[in-house]
Amino acid sequence: MKREIDVPGNKLIIFYRIIVAMMLLLVVLLIAGSLYAFIRSRDSGPLFRIGAVKGGIAPKDSGNQGRTETASVNNVFSGIGTLRIQNTGKASGTASETALIIISISFPYKADDRPFTEELASHLGEFRSIATNYFANLPKDKLTRLDEEQAKADILKQYNALLRLGRIETLYFGDLMIVD
């Protein structure tokens, strides 16, 4: 008894061989990259950057071999967002004595201080509460002639009392509006 077996065509065999060769090449690249990562020192900078660098040209360091120093770079923490605070003052709290305060608070921090950055993010709700309570409880007469520097100092003092891993040096008020 004779059996006939279908043998795939030459094109199909070539296609399978190409697929197997590509998979082997991928495995070799992954192994080589992993070995290189283990051999490479921890403090070495990236081999290349994808995307635009500030100014369009990567900074050239003589001794850093492509690494950029971020020790002096500051970021601005603006995670508090825009707050809309209903101020009732400490007077009678009638509708004629209420005001709406719209404010956004931000401050600079060191970009390379990761633990401090994480601490800032963890206290986000408390930062909002401190600012909301401060402005909501200001008397109407102090609100109309708000001493911005004093408000910044008072809020900054309360913010820094929360923090353990660093200090906030200065606060910025953006979009400060008082609507009667």
What is the fold's blueprint, element by element?
Layout: H1 10-39, E1 74-77, E2 82-87, E3 99-110, H2 114-122, H3 124-136, H4 140-144, H5 148-162, E4 172-179
Antiparallel strand pairs: 1-3, 2-3, 3-4
Helix pairs in contact: 3-5
Offer a few descriptive terms.
180 residues, alpha+beta, Tetrahydropterin Synthase, Chain A, 4-stranded antiparallel sheet, 4 strands, 40% helix, elongated
Could you describe the 3D structure shown?
This protein has 180 residues and is of the alpha+beta class. It has two domains: 7-42; 74-179, Tetrahydropterin Synthase, Chain A. 40% of the residues lie in helices and 17% in strands. It contains five helices and four strands, in the order H-E-E-E-H-H-H-H-E. The chain has helices spanning 10-39, 114-122, 124-136, 140-144, 148-162, and strands at 74-77, 82-87, 99-110, 172-179. Strands 1, 2, 3 and 4 form a four-stranded antiparallel β-sheet that branches. Mean pLDDT is 82; it is low at 60-71.
Could you say how many structural domains there are in total?
Answer: 2
CATH class of the largest domain, named Alpha Beta
Terminal residue distance: 101 Å
Task: Give the oligomer, counting copies of the same chain as homo and different chains as hetero.
Answer: single chain
**Residue share in helix:** 40-55%
At the third CATH level, what is the topology name of the largest domain? Tetrahydropterin Synthase, Chain A
Average of pLDDT: 82
Radius of gyration: 30 Å
